[in-house]
Inverse folding.
Protein backbone atom coordinates (compact mmCIF):
# COMPACT_ATOMS: atom_id res chain seq x y z
CA UNK A 1 0.00 0.00 0.00
CA UNK A 2 2.89 2.37 0.78
CA UNK A 3 4.41 1.73 -2.64
CA UNK A 4 1.10 2.37 -4.37
CA UNK A 5 0.58 5.59 -2.37
CA UNK A 6 4.09 6.76 -3.31
CA UNK A 7 3.37 6.01 -6.96
CA UNK A 8 0.07 7.92 -6.89
CA UNK A 9 1.78 10.87 -5.20
CA UNK A 10 4.47 10.98 -7.92
CA UNK A 11 1.79 11.10 -10.62
CA UNK A 12 -0.07 13.87 -8.80
CA UNK A 13 3.19 15.81 -8.34
CA UNK A 14 3.79 15.65 -12.09
CA UNK A 15 0.32 17.16 -12.57
CA UNK A 16 1.14 19.82 -9.97
CA UNK A 17 4.23 20.89 -11.91
CA UNK A 18 2.02 21.88 -14.84
CA UNK A 19 0.55 24.62 -12.65
CA UNK A 20 3.81 26.26 -11.53
CA UNK A 21 6.06 28.46 -13.64
CA UNK A 22 8.35 25.98 -15.31
CA UNK A 23 8.81 27.37 -18.80
CA UNK A 24 9.63 30.62 -20.50
CA UNK A 25 8.45 32.08 -23.76
CA UNK A 26 11.00 34.07 -25.73
CA UNK A 27 9.36 36.56 -28.01
CA UNK A 28 10.65 40.14 -27.82
CA UNK A 29 10.47 39.79 -24.04
CA UNK A 30 11.06 36.73 -21.90
CA UNK A 31 7.92 35.68 -20.04
CA UNK A 32 7.60 32.93 -17.42
CA UNK A 33 4.60 30.62 -17.93
CA UNK A 34 3.12 27.48 -16.42
CA UNK A 35 2.99 24.20 -18.30
CA UNK A 36 -0.69 24.70 -19.12
CA UNK A 37 -0.01 28.19 -20.47
CA UNK A 38 2.89 26.83 -22.53
CA UNK A 39 0.63 24.20 -24.10
CA UNK A 40 -1.93 26.85 -25.03
CA UNK A 41 0.51 29.58 -26.12
CA UNK A 42 1.13 30.04 -29.85
CA UNK A 43 4.54 31.57 -29.00
CA UNK A 44 5.81 28.30 -27.51
CA UNK A 45 7.48 25.85 -29.96
CA UNK A 46 5.00 23.42 -31.54
CA UNK A 47 7.01 20.29 -30.66
CA UNK A 48 7.07 21.40 -27.03
CA UNK A 49 3.33 21.97 -27.00
CA UNK A 50 2.65 18.52 -28.43
CA UNK A 51 5.01 16.74 -26.04
CA UNK A 52 3.76 18.65 -22.99
CA UNK A 53 0.15 17.97 -23.97
CA UNK A 54 0.91 14.25 -24.27
CA UNK A 55 2.62 14.21 -20.86
CA UNK A 56 -0.30 16.07 -19.28
CA UNK A 57 -2.97 13.81 -20.78
CA UNK A 58 -1.07 10.59 -20.05
CA UNK A 59 -0.46 11.58 -16.45
CA UNK A 60 -4.14 12.47 -16.07
CA UNK A 61 -5.17 9.07 -17.48
CA UNK A 62 -2.62 7.23 -15.36
CA UNK A 63 -3.67 9.08 -12.21
CA UNK A 64 -7.33 8.27 -12.80
CA UNK A 65 -6.51 4.58 -13.26
CA UNK A 66 -4.39 4.54 -10.09
CA UNK A 67 -7.05 6.32 -8.02
CA UNK A 68 -9.73 3.99 -9.38
CA UNK A 69 -7.49 1.08 -8.41
CA UNK A 70 -7.84 2.15 -4.78
CA UNK A 71 -11.59 1.55 -5.02
CA UNK A 72 -11.72 -1.47 -7.30
CA UNK A 73 -8.75 -3.81 -7.01
CA UNK A 74 -7.41 -5.62 -10.05
CA UNK A 75 -7.92 -2.96 -12.72
CA UNK A 76 -4.25 -2.08 -13.06
CA UNK A 77 -3.40 -5.77 -13.51
CA UNK A 78 -5.75 -5.87 -16.49
CA UNK A 79 -4.26 -2.67 -17.90
CA UNK A 80 -0.65 -3.40 -17.00
CA UNK A 81 0.56 -3.50 -20.61
CA UNK A 82 -1.13 -0.19 -21.42
CA UNK A 83 0.21 1.48 -18.26
CA UNK A 84 3.72 0.22 -18.99
CA UNK A 85 3.52 1.70 -22.49
CA UNK A 86 2.22 5.00 -21.13
CA UNK A 87 5.01 5.24 -18.54
CA UNK A 88 7.66 4.38 -21.11
CA UNK A 89 6.37 7.00 -23.54
CA UNK A 90 6.21 9.51 -20.66
CA UNK A 91 9.92 8.98 -20.09
CA UNK A 92 10.69 9.38 -23.78
CA UNK A 93 8.55 12.52 -23.81
CA UNK A 94 10.47 13.88 -20.83
CA UNK A 95 13.70 13.33 -22.74
CA UNK A 96 12.20 15.12 -25.75
CA UNK A 97 11.26 18.07 -23.54
CA UNK A 98 14.85 18.40 -22.36
CA UNK A 99 16.22 17.90 -25.87
CA UNK A 100 13.97 20.19 -27.90
CA UNK A 101 12.84 22.82 -25.44
CA UNK A 102 15.63 22.70 -22.87
CA UNK A 103 16.39 26.38 -23.41
CA UNK A 104 12.80 27.19 -22.46
CA UNK A 105 12.90 25.28 -19.14
CA UNK A 106 12.99 26.88 -15.72
CA UNK A 107 13.40 25.09 -12.39
CA UNK A 108 9.74 23.94 -12.47
CA UNK A 109 10.28 22.24 -15.83
CA UNK A 110 13.35 20.43 -14.57
CA UNK A 111 11.37 19.43 -11.48
CA UNK A 112 8.71 17.91 -13.74
CA UNK A 113 11.33 15.90 -15.64
CA UNK A 114 12.89 14.72 -12.38
CA UNK A 115 9.56 13.54 -11.00
CA UNK A 116 8.85 11.71 -14.27
CA UNK A 117 12.17 9.88 -13.85
CA UNK A 118 11.28 8.96 -10.24
CA UNK A 119 7.85 7.78 -11.41
CA UNK A 120 9.35 5.55 -14.11
CA UNK A 121 11.84 4.15 -11.60
CA UNK A 122 9.02 3.37 -9.15
CA UNK A 123 6.95 1.71 -11.86
CA UNK A 124 9.73 -0.62 -12.97
CA UNK A 125 11.15 -1.24 -9.50
CA UNK A 126 7.96 -1.98 -7.57
CA UNK A 127 5.21 -2.80 -10.04
CA UNK A 128 6.75 -5.28 -12.50
Amino acid sequence: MKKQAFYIITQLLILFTFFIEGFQIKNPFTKKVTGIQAILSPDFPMIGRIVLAYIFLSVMFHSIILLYELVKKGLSKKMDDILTAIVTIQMISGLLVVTFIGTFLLWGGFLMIGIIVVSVFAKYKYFQ
About this structure: Helices lie at 2-17, 35-40, 46-71, 75-78, 80-101, 107-126. The first helix runs from residue 2 to 17. The chain has a mean pLDDT of 88.
